[in-house]
Amino acid sequence: MDCVPSIPLSSISQLYPLLDISAQSVRYKSLIENFHSIYPNRSPKFIARAPGRVNLIGEHIDYAGFGVLPTAIGRDILIAVEITENDKRVRIANVNGEKYKPDSWNFEGKNKIVEIIVDVNVSKWSNYFKCGYKGILQHLGIDDPKGMYCLVDGIVPSASGLSSSSAFVCCAALATALANDVNLTKKQITEISIECERFAGLNSGGMDQTASIFSQIEHALYIQFFPTLTAIPVKLPTITPPIAFVIANSLITSDKVITGPIHYNLRVVETKLAAYDLGKTLFGKECEHLRQVYDMYSQTTEVKDSQLEYLSNFVDKHYTELKKREGYSLDELSVLLNFSREEIEEKFLTKFPVQAERFHLYKRSKHVFDEASRVLKFYEICQADGKNDQEIIKSLGELMNQSHKSCKELFDCSCKELDELVKICLEGGAIGSRLTGAGWGGCTVSLIHEDQVEKFICYVIENYYKLRFPLLTNGQLKDAIFATKPGSGAAIVEIK
Ligand code: NG1
Ligand code: MG
């Protein structure tokens, strides 16, 4: 079920609510002024906006096919756009022109669309725009696109697990669709954005793009990928005192496109290898991802509640019996899966480059089943009425803590600074704290009573930032640690 009605994009005010920009009107105004000075005699026709997200729970399980629970944050990407009929050139500039240099390219015919290439080896900021642009043109077979003048203003911290990349891809897709006057539903825009962000070299799941497009103010989003993409808004529990989420950046940057072969893309492959092994072992069938293993198992049992737990226990038993809790070399995998080394490379390791000495099937699959089960519990707690407030917040916090432990110990996607930051956050009064996003650096998210946010932030500044990054200015500190409320998803601002 698509829980948002399929309205054509032309009904933009229904699909992408026209923003109340009063809170940020200075930023919008200055974007327009900047536009005029960068592109003299031109005026933007609209501003597309797409937010970053913070994942509350459900890490590294979207690409394994399991549901996740993020929420949009207030920090977003804006793209001011003017359209021209005179040529098919795209010009893109950034308000932070020092750091992000202008770029432009020509559309040279439908068959050459692949050449609007996103060169993975050159880590260029405009690549993400090209992903969204190329995705829309390719998907719709547009061979006569409009020319575009674009100016970008992004305030989602980059390389920190808050999804600046997906916000940018979604925003570019939205801007391109609108500039070319095409009718697309939210679900279509999301699916195209998911698909086309992979042009940038990461075999990513779909959580970030869905959160950026579908989020609703004051709600988290329960996103499922099977049997089809759905996004259900989830009201977070209203308790006394109210709860808040604080994002704290470890300030260790992790550029996943660069480290993809040893981190992100490798994890995707490890979960797929585990799915293949478990599918064969349990049902004699080839499974593509762990969700498929779960679905097959569901069909064989009446017990609906504890299926993930069963599978989690099964991987314990299975890899203990095989004496393979510590992973497989390529040669050992070839024995396990009954493929030659070449077949394994061909089937699992070529689509996106991967480098590894050992492949951890046990630890990754165990994390995925346990984390999927934590997401369901988190979602259920949010929906349950009448529970004692203290009990609710304690259970949510506990699930977040377990999630971090599992990311650290089973999924190996934390780092020492993130672990230290989580520890400090808990000492500073957080009820739950965990890394958010892909990890290996980037941000943590902490659950906290709203009335303690200020004290909490001071504690973390004293004990993390002042010690590790003593030279940070107050402005930089405000960017590094801040409270966030579930914000709204992508939107369009018409400029009259
Ligand atoms: P971040 O860290 O925000 O880029 C990435 C993936 C998600 C998800 C998380 C881990 C992309 C675009 N996003 O998020 O799909 O797998 O890691 O849960 O690669
Ligand atoms: Mg990203």
Q: Overall 3D geometry?
A: globular
Name the strands of the widest sheet in spatial order. 4-3-5-2-1-12
Low-confidence stretches: 1-14
Range of strand content? 15-25%
Q: What's the Cα radius of gyration?
A: 23 Å
Helix proportion: 40-55%
Hetero groups: 2-acetamido-2-deoxy-1-O-phosphono-alpha-D-galactopyranose, magnesium ion
* H/E element order: HHEEEEHEHHHEEEHHHHHHHHHEEHHEE
CATH architecture of the domain at 6-235 and 486-494: 2-Layer Sandwich
How do the strands and helices of this protein lay out in sequence?
Elements: H1 12-15, H2 25-38, E1 46-57, E2 69-84, E3 89-94, E4 103-106, H3 126-140, E5 147-154, H4 164-179, H5 186-197, H6 207-214, E6 219-224, E7 230-235, E8 243-249, H7 256-259, H8 264-283, H9 290-300, H10 307-321, H11 330-337, H12 341-349, H13 361-383, H14 389-409, H15 416-427, E9 432-435, E10 443-449, H16 453-468, H17 474-480, E11 481-484, E12 491-494
Parallel strand pairs: 3-5
Antiparallel strand pairs: 1-2, 1-12, 2-5, 3-4, 6-7, 8-10, 8-11, 9-10
Can you walk through the features of this model?
It holds the Pfam family GalKase_gal_bdg. GO terms for molecular function: ATP binding; galactokinase activity. It catalyses: alpha-D-galactose + ATP = alpha-D-galactose 1-phosphate + ADP + H(+). Belongs to the GHMP kinase family. GalK subfamily. This protein is α+β, with helices and mostly antiparallel strands. The chain has a domain at about 5-235 and about 485-495: Ribosomal Protein S5, domain 2 (2-Layer Sandwich), CATH 3.30.230.10. Helix content is about 45%, strand content about 15%. It contains 17 helices and 12 strands. The protein has helices spanning about 10-15, 25-40, 125-140, 165-180, 185-195, 205-215, 255-260, 265-285, 290-300, 305-320, 330-335, 340-350, 360-385, 390-410, 415-425, 455-470, 475-480, and strands spanning about 45-55, 70-85, 90-95, 105, 145-155, 220-225, 230-235, 245-250, 430-435, 445-450, 480-485, 490-495. The strands form 3 sheets. A 6-stranded mixed sheet has the order 4-3-5-2-1-12, with helices on both faces. A hairpin with a 7-residue loop joins strand 9 (about 430-435) and strand 10 (about 445-450). Helix 8 (about 265-285) packs across helix 13. The radius of gyration is 23 Å and the shape is globular. Mean pLDDT is about 90; it is low at about 1-15. Magnesium ion (MG) binds near residues 163, 165 and 166.
